[in-house]
Specification:
The chain has nine helices and four strands. It has 178 residues and is α/β, with parallel strands linked by helices. Helix 5 crosses helix 6.
Amino acid sequence: PAAETSRTGRIGVMATERAIADPCIDDLIARFAPELEVMRLPAQDLVSFVERRYLSSSEAERRAAVEPYVRRFLEGGVDRIVLACTHYLHLETDIAACAQALGGEGVEIVDARRGVADRIAQIVGERSDAPGVPGGPGASAEAAARRPGRFFLTSDPPFAPSYGQWARRFGLQPPERL
C-alpha cells in the first residue's frame, strides 16, 4: 500500500534492527517497490518503550519517543511511513501527530499488521506438530487467522507481568505455554 500510494516515490520503513537487516525486506522492496526510494530506519528502542513504558506513559513522553524517527523520515522526504513492527502500531497516533507537528503535510502512516497477521497464520497453519493448534498440513491461513481468543508470543516463559496487562487490555487471557 505504501508503494502504491506514494506521491513522492520515497517511503520509510520503521522496523526492528533484525527486520531491517533481514533479506526478506530486500525481497519485498524488489517485488513491490523497485522504482521507489525506501528509507529503512531501525527503531529497536521503541519496542522496549512500548513493552515497558507505553501503558503508563503520557502523550508528551510518547511523542518525545517517536520524534527522532519521524524527523529523520521527514528529512529524507518520505510521504509514507510503514510501521513494520506490531509494537509501533500502539504509537501510530503519536507518529502521525508528530509528523503533522513537524510539517509533514500529506505524510501517511501505513499499518503492516495485515501482512504480519497473514504470515503468522500461514506459519501456524503449517505447524502440524504444535500442540493445541487446530489444522495441520494444508490448513489455510484464513482459517488460522480466524481462531478467536488466542495470541502468540515470540519469547519463552516465564512471561513478564506486563504481557498479562496487554492481554487483558485486548480482552484476551494471559499468555500460556503451548
